[in-house]
Amino acid sequence: MKFCIDPGHGMSNRQIGIFDSGAVHVENGFLFKEADIALRYGLALKDAFRARGIEVFMTRDDETDHAPVGRRAAMASSAGCDALISLHLNDFDDDRANGLEVLFRDQRGKALAQKLQTALLKVTGMADRRIKQRTDLAVLKFSGLAVLIELGFIANDADRAKLLDAQVRESVVQAIATVSIEHVGAA
Question: What pTM, to 2 d.p., does this model score?
């Protein structure tokens, strides 16, 4: 069993040689970038999988790894991954928008998306934005099982505070690892 972890955005995501920060939010002079938070979660998730003896492929390990969004699914396939988990944060003009959601491409991903949504709501206490089917997202075009987790809203104070909390991050990545391993192992 091998998982691809895709921390969203980063270097050369949309344009070669340009860092794509994803959604950003400034609060009290501090700049928060989706790419940075997603990477922290991705690296923690890698550790959670490896601690359980599960092989992991990362689309990027730092801010300098070139990982064009249109190549990430192919990278996961070339690495022999069974499933791809892409990590992101949501953004909206209204800072009151909040909650988490898991996106999936097809029926194969729907059951995993629902299990992840249920587990993540339990450990975060965030609002339920439900699972959603998306066939247009590049990373979800992975040939195997693929989900994209929108961990919360970067501009929402409550969501962001939870996402920046190390204990919440640990609970989230442990939940993702547990649910993903059980689901893929049972398939």
Answer: 0.96
